[in-house]
Amino acid sequence: MKMKNMIATLAAVAVSATGFAAMSLSASADAEIGKAYLIGGFGAETQNWKPGDNPNANNVSVTGDGQYEVAWTVSEATNTGNSWFLAVCIAPTSADNFTTDTFPNLAVSLDEVWVDGAQITDFSTAVINTAFYETSTGVTRIFLNDDWTGTGANVIADTDVTTDIKVKFTVSGLAAEEETTAAPETTAAPETTTAAAGTTTAAAGTTAAGATTAAAATTAAANGGTTTSNAATGDTGVAVAVAALAVAGGVALVSKKRK
Question: Concatenated DSSP letters for the chain?
Answer without folding.
Answer: -HHHHHHHHHHHHHHHHHHHHHHHHHHHHTS--EEEEEEEE-TTSPPBSSTTSSTTB-EEEE-SSEEEEEEEE-SS-EE--SS-EEEEEEEESSSS-SSTTT-TT-EEEEEEEEETTEEE---TT-EEEEEEESSSSEEEEEEEEESSSS---BSS-S-EESSEEEEEEEEESSGGGG--PPPPP--PPPP--PPP---B-TTT--BPTTPPPS---EE-GGGTS-EE--------HHHHHHHHHHHHHHHHHHHS---
